[in-house]
Amino acid sequence: MSAVTIDHQMLATAIDVLQRESVYLDEQRWDEWLALYIADCEYWVPSWKNEETLTSNPQAELSHIYYATRAGLEDRVVRIRSRRSPASTPMPRTTHTVSNVMFLETPNAERMKLRSSWVCHVFFPRQHDSHAFFGKAEYELVRKDGGWLIAKKKTILQNDYIPTMLDVYCI
Questions:
Q1: Over 60: is that where the pLDDT of 84 sits?
Q2: Is the pLDDT of residue 86 over 90?
Q3: Which of 5, 48, 98, 100: disulfide with 117, CB 3.0–4.6 Å?
Q4: pLDDT for 123-135, tens place per residue?
């Protein structure tokens, strides 16, 4: 990674988008969460091939979660809202924390690439159990209609032993 010029205003804007995503997930504000993503976004949680290597092609290799567009995220939200999703009934309670946000490339007026560290504490009411998922995420934000939206999100789950299930609201 090369040196990145820090634009503090753009970094504050990026942090705001990531924090809003976390709050919307925690508060199950699904429409606002979906509105953070462009229509042709990519949402990817690769799996680990071995202890050191992640999968690199979501089209040909196993992923924990992969949606090629926002339509996949929208479909997931429909299933969550329907209360017919066994994995999401009753809905787990979550608290997300995002930190260590930094640019991966020098941002410009139309695009930002950044990374963050994250943790999500999840309480599963059915099992009376809680778990913490954690890792890092890489984002690509694009300017649309005067605001910044997520074009790509790649979430690297560091503790990929999954005790019960994994869903978009857990990461």
A1: yes
A2: no
A3: 100
A4: 988 889 899 999 9
For 92, phi and psi rounded to 5 degrees? Answer: -65, 150
C-alpha 79/C-alpha 48 separation (Å) is 27
Asked if 160 and 136 touch (Cβ cutoff 8 Å), the reply is: no
Of 110, 112, 114, 113, nearest to 145 by C-alpha is 110
Contacts of 158 (CB under 8 A, 6+ apart): 134, 135, 136
In the Cβ-directed half-sphere of 59, how many Cα atoms lie within 13 Å?
2
Distance of CA 107 to the CA centre of its chain: 20
CA 94 to chain centre: 13
Closest by CA to 124, choosing from 88, 161, 77, 159, is 88
- Is the whole-model pTM more than 0.85? yes
Note the residue count of the chain: 171
Query: What's the CA gap between 84 and 78, in Å, rounded?
Result: 10
CB 166 within 8 A of CB 64: yes
Q: What is the pLDDT of residues 62-71, one digit of tens each?
A: 999 999 999 9
